[in-house]
Design a protein that fits this description.
Chain lengths: 397, 761
């Protein structure tokens, strides 16, 4: 199975750290994907969340079933029969890809996430379940692949195969888009984003995707310009991302989960917190063609003591969300202009259950580019890195 | 030991400062808070008012005329008289009126008091309107109209800002600076490029505006961001319960952002090596505060917020600069204003995001731009843009005079007034057309902001010379009753300026020997000592003229080659007579008969410290005569008359035209234009070779196809221009009359610099 890892293509980044010395050279080019032993995992350990994709083979022959070692079976059953693991692990059932053919095997792809701070518990569990006895490879990407490598080795007796996160991200995006979402389109956009009444989510055909600007909004934000499967560059990034929204919300409102923060935001009014152009100029600032509704200063009203006392936690959560989202939109738009790219794909877990931000991004890109730029979104938001890691395991699909 | 009243006075002043910090009783504040008539100066002639009212500061601008004394020289009618015992010319002090722009910045809380004061002292009744700009202009409209009886005429904020920006960029040589955190000089001033356009102005007020300025009148809002100073303030107030912007910055400067931010190393355990991202980079601002059960310190949160906002603004500014292909980005707005903390974070951000290709630039008079612009809008009929204006160092407070970072004690002080004054220059200033590259021309040889040792030396030097200068100033006006009182005021003012410069060398831009001299002239003028050396110069010119004939005769008796050397030696010896250099003034004061010949004998023997005399001689011998030589003359008396004129005479007899350039106004014992006219006239009467002088230097230099520039004296050839590259041949000569400087250059006192340069083709 190691050999498969070496048939990796694409990306300008360095090769995965494979313990190559242990691999008999002769095996490398002869190995077929179906030689890759189960279980098939792809892991993306981010700053806030761990994303795990698991391929559940559905075409297991009776012979295979018989041969399947006990703990492998128990892992399969455990993962597929539950939707929650421990107190924080969650399987996004609605994202499950059914009847997928991957390397000649048919099965379902499961999407699981849990907070990064539970990583030690996860490794502990792997150790208790004697995961290492399965002699499988755990392909992992994201910063945590580096950070937790030592823990995997010492606590779990597991050797991680570390993969570059941007390589994985792009592979994952292209792959999932190509297989589609159980017969539906993976990619979508918002039509009439500037019109609340007529705005609707519509499928987008990303068949010919290049060039595209890929904006990955996790705890922080990375922006990539993708020219082909193999040719991409990281244009820039910003530290004002999902972590900033959630972190500030925790401080401002005392909330404790991302869901809670979003829920609050959905009931708040950011215009009580932000200073708008019309708050300063009484209307539009015509000299510069700025509409009155535009935000002139995020949290600008909070300079005043009276206004600080009159806003609700919901208003503050909403303003935080709008501030972070608009800023990402603004940086993405500038990058798109500088790179001369007009399709901008937003991914990352910040967008999970976050229609407010998606519509705001769609609106902002459309409005400020006078219709030149299009914001696109993908159903599997934050899982592409993990999918990419799984694909690496299988030696590129 | 002699009494040093000046230093004692300062000691008292310092003690007061300390006292205020610990206890702070009311009476002490009087020593600092200036009486209003020292702030709103020259109100009696004021007109064309403009006001810029920001969130916390008001900036008032007005135009006024200043009547001040100038020394004039007038030739006597010598016909038929015995001129042996008469002075060469008559000196009179006359009143002259010059235009001055006044800008005053104060906290909004003083607005009413200030308006009252202005109303009481405003004599000029022509004024009907006041131009107003800034966010607060609307709020205070009624108050201004009621108090001043003037109609408030509102002007667009951004238009004013840009007008003001263009004005300072054009008129103030050291307006622009870059901020350097870990250097001895935090503020690195830039030389203004003759063409200031195009540039990007990033104004960080409550939000951020990014404006591209292409010409004087053409500018465009190209973008902005809602994450600005208001976000820092508003969000900061929510997070830390700290209400004031300055206090938030103070908090931020004490915090550790790494406790709140998620860094790359928190995610990766180290650096993200494939991308070369350092482990200390912020991966997610506030990424560690994603928990409800941990407390974070106010300082840490404020710091994290500051980084978040500065980085974001820097990133956007770089993206806009890249899109519009601009490399000059000036930052302004209340977020930046006088706050090293924000300048540091913005500079870091710009450097990071542009990968070092773009430099964040700041403006020394940033806080005044709106007021200047509004004023210019109102003064269009006076065409202020037609003239050149210069900062008056005596009347201006200097950069960050009120900054808490420089004077932490002053935060407790309520009434802080900052002033900025500009004088209209007699004529527009242009670059010498013979400069090889005007855009890289830096006149000053040593940057004292950069060179701490040299700075200490020169500041001490000017301090030590101050008593003597004050004494001479008083002596120059023996008929005036209040001369010694004014001289003492001058002494105090200049002493204070020198102390300010010790603490903030960057207060008026790059600190140089030249700027120290200019500041002294401005202070002297302020107390009506237009030309303390006038009498000395008069006497010396008289003595020197008497010797002219014999010097010429002895030169003419020499063979050609001997004469060339004697002429150069004469030029150098003449330059020993310089009241500016302490070593010489000591000798001159004690031995008034110190002669020309003695000066020659003091000169260093060849080879000189810098010696290209042989090449010069070769050039004279082999080459054709120069078409036209431009000579920048230095001192009056022996220098110009016995040193420069014989040299001029030789050039003229070779068929070279000569343009003699002298200062338009007095500076120490430098020969002024009007003195030189009289001197030339007298020499011309004695010597038929010398005809006349010309004005309109830049035009003339072009017309006459000047191909030789001669610069003499320490001030012109060493302190400045030593490295100046010219398009034509040049001769820089001086005698080093300062042992410290001589030592630094590897020579001894009275070492000779003779630098003949031919530009490479």
């Amino acid at each position: 199975c190691w050999a498969a890892l070496c048939r990796r293509t694409g990306g300008r980044s360095s090769r995965p750290r494979v313990p190559g010395d242990a691999v008999p050279l002769a095996l490398r080019d002869e190995t077929k994907a179906d030689d890759v032993i189960f279980p098939w995992f792809g892991l993306d350990i981010g700053g806030t969340l761990v994303k795990l994709v698991y391929f559940e083979p559905k075409d297991i022959t009776a012979e295979e079933e018989e041969e399947e070692v006990e703990n492998l079976k128990s892992i399969r059953k455990y993962l597929t029969s539950n939707v929650a693991y421990g107190s924080t692990g969650i399987r996004d059932v609605h994202l499950e890809l059914k009847d997928l053919t991957l390397c000649g095997r048919k099965g379902n792809l499961h999407f699981i996430r849990f907070p990064t701070h539970d990583m030690p518990a996860f490794i502990q569990m792997g150790s208790e379940k004697h995961f290492s006895s399965l002699h499988t490879t755990l392909c992992a990407t994201g910063g945590g692949a580096y950070k937790f490598e030592q823990d995997f080795r010492t606590m779990g007796d597991l050797q991680l195969c570390k993969l570059d996160e941007l390589d994985c991200l792009i592979k994952g995006v292209l792959y999932i888009d190509s297989v589609g979402f159980n017969g539906r389109s993976e990619c979508y956009y918002f039509e009439n984003p500037t019109d609340a009444e007529r705005c609707q989510k519509l499928p987008f055909n990303l068949e010919n995707p290049y060039p595209l600007l890929l904006v990955n909004i996790g705890s922080g934000v990375s922006i990539l310009a993708v020219y082909s499967k193999e040719n991409y560059k990281r244009v820039t990034g910003t530290s004002l991302g999902g972590g900033t929204f959630f972190g500030l919300c925790c401080l401002l409102t005392g909330c404790s989960t991302f869901e809670e923060a979003l829920e609050m935001a959905s009931h708040g009014d950011s215009t009580k917190v932000d200073k708008l152009v019309r708050d300063i100029y009484g209307g539009d600032y015509e000299r510069f063609g700025l509409p009155g509704w535009a935000v002139a200063s995020s949290f600008g009203n909070m300079m005043s003591k009276e206004k600080r006392e009159s806003v609700s936690k919901e208003d503050l959560a909403r303003a935080t969300l709008v501030t972070i989202t608009n800023n990402i939109g603004s940086i993405a738009r500038m990058c798109a202009l500088n790179e001369n790219i007009n399709r901008v794909v937003f991914v990352g877990n910040f967008l999970r259950i976050n229609t407010i931000s998606m519509r705001l991004l769609a609106y902002a890109l459309d409005y400020w580019s006078k219709g030149q730029l299009k914001a696109l979104f993908l159903e599997h938001e934050g899982y592409f890195g993990a999918v990419g890691a799984l694909l690496e395991l299988l030696g590129s699909a | 030991m002699p009494m040093r009243p000046s230093k004692e006075w300062v000691a008292i002043k310092m003690a007061e400062r300390g006292g205020r910090g610990s206890g702070g009783h009311g009476s002490l504040d009087k020593s600092i808070t200036l009486p209003p008539d020292e702030i709103f100066r020259n109100l009696e002639n004021a007109k064309r008012f403009a006001i810029d009212i920001g969130g916390s500061l008001t900036k008032l601008a007005y135009y006024s005329t200043v009547q001040h004394k100038v020394a004039r020289v007038r030739s006597f009618d010598h016909s038929g008289k015995d001129i042996e015992h008469e002075p060469l010319y008559e000196i009179s002090v006359q009143e002259e009126i010059t235009a001055r722009l006044h800008f005053i910045k104060f906290e909004n809380t003083y607005i009413e008091t200030c308006l009252d004061f202005i109303k009481d002292h405003l004599v000029n009744t022509e004024t009907k309107v006041i131009k107003a700009t800034g966010g607060g202009a609307y709020k205070f409209k009624d108050l201004i109209e009621k108090k001043l009886g003037l109609k408030v005429d509102k002007e667009d904020v951004m238009t004013c800002l840009i007008k003001g920006c263009n004005f300072v960029l054009k008129n103030i040589p050291h307006e622009v600076f870059a901020y350097q955190k870990d250097s001895d000089t935090e503020f690195r001033f830039q030389t203004n490029h003759p063409n200031i356009f195009p540039y990007l102005l990033v104004n960080i007020g409550s939000g951020v505006s990014i404006v591209k300025v292409e010409t004087e009148d053409k500018f465009e809002w190209i973008g902005g961001s809602s994450i600005g100073g208001g976000t820092f303030w508003g969000l900061g107030a929510l997070l830390t319960k700290t209400k004031k912007f300055d206090e938030l910055l103070q908090l931020a400067s004490k915090g550790q952002h790494t406790n709140v931010d998620m860094l790359v190393k928190d995610v990766y355990g180290g650096a993200y090596q494939t991308l070369g991202l350092s482990g200390n980079l912020i991966a997610s601002s506030f990424g560690k505060s994603t928990t409800a059960d941990k407390e974070f310190s106010k300082e840490d949160m404020a710091k994290s917020l500051l980084h978040m906002i500065s980085n974001d603004i820097g990133q956007l500014a770089c993206l806009y600069a890249k899109l519009h292909n601009l490399d000059k980005i000036y930052f302004g707005g209340f977020f930046i204003r006088g706050h090293p903390v924000t300048m540091r974070t913005i500079t870091y951000s710009i450097n990071f995001f542009s990968k070092g290709e773009v430099q964040a630039l700041f403006l020394r008079h940033e806080g005044y731009l709106g007021a200047i612009g509004a004023f210019l809008k109102g003064a269009e009929q006076d065409n202020p843009n037609q003239y050149s204006w210069g900062e008056n160092y005596a009347g201006s407070s200097g950069l960050m005079s009120t900054s808490p970072d420089v004077f932490p004690m002053q935060r407790t002080r309520s009434g802080t007034f900052d002033m900025f004054e500009m004088d209209r220059l007699e004529r527009p200033l242009v670059n010498l057309p013979l400069l090889k590259d005007p855009s890289t021309y830096i006149p000053d040889t040593v940057d004292l902001t950069d060179d701490a040792m040299a700075r200490k030396y020169w500041l001490t030097c000017f301090e030590e010379a101050l008593d003597g200068v004050a004494k001479r100033a008083a002596a120059s006006q023996p008929d005036s009753i209040d001369a010694s009182e004014r001289a003492e005021k001058f002494r105090q003012k200049y002493w204070n300026k020198l102390q300010t410069l010790r603490q903030q060398p960057f207060a008026y831009g790059t600190l140089t020997v030249r700027s120290l001299l200019d500041t002294r002239e401005h202070c002297l003028n302020e107390f009506n000592f237009p030309d303390p050396y006038s009498k000395v110069k008069q006497k010396e010119n008289g003595i020197a003229l008497k010797c002219f004939q014999s010097v010429i005769e002895s030169l003419d008796s020499l063979g050609w080659e001997e004469r060339q050397f004697a002429l150069v030696k004469g030029l150098l010896a003449g330059n020993v007579f310089d009241w500016g250099a302490k070593a010489v003034s000591d000798v001159l004061e004690s031995e008034p008969q110190f002669g020309f010949e003695e000066a020659k004998s003091k000169l260093q023997e060849r080879p000189w410290l810098e010696d290209s005399y042989s090449q010069w001689l070769e050039r004279l011998k082999e080459g054709p005569p120069h078409k036209c030589a431009l000579i920048f003359a230095d001192n009056s008396g022996i220098d110009i008359i016995l040193g420069v004129f014989p040299f001029v005479r030789e050039l003229l007899s070779r068929g070279t035209e000569v343009i003699l350039a002298c200062n338009s106004g007095p500076a120490l014992n430098d020969v002024t234009y009007s003195e030189s006219l009289i001197v030339t006239e007298r020499i011309a009467a004695m010597d038929p070779v010398i005809h006349r002088l010309d004005k309109g230097l830049a035009v003339l230099v072009r017309e006459r196809e000047t191909d030789l520039v001669i610069i003499e004296g320490m001030g012109r050839a060493i302190h400045t221009n030593y490295y100046a590259a010219l398009k034509c041949e040049s001769l820089k000569l001086a005698v080093i009359k300062n042992s410290w400087l001589a030592d630094r250059l590897g020579g001894k006192i009275f070492s000779v610099i003779f630098k003949y340069e031919v530009p490479c083709k």
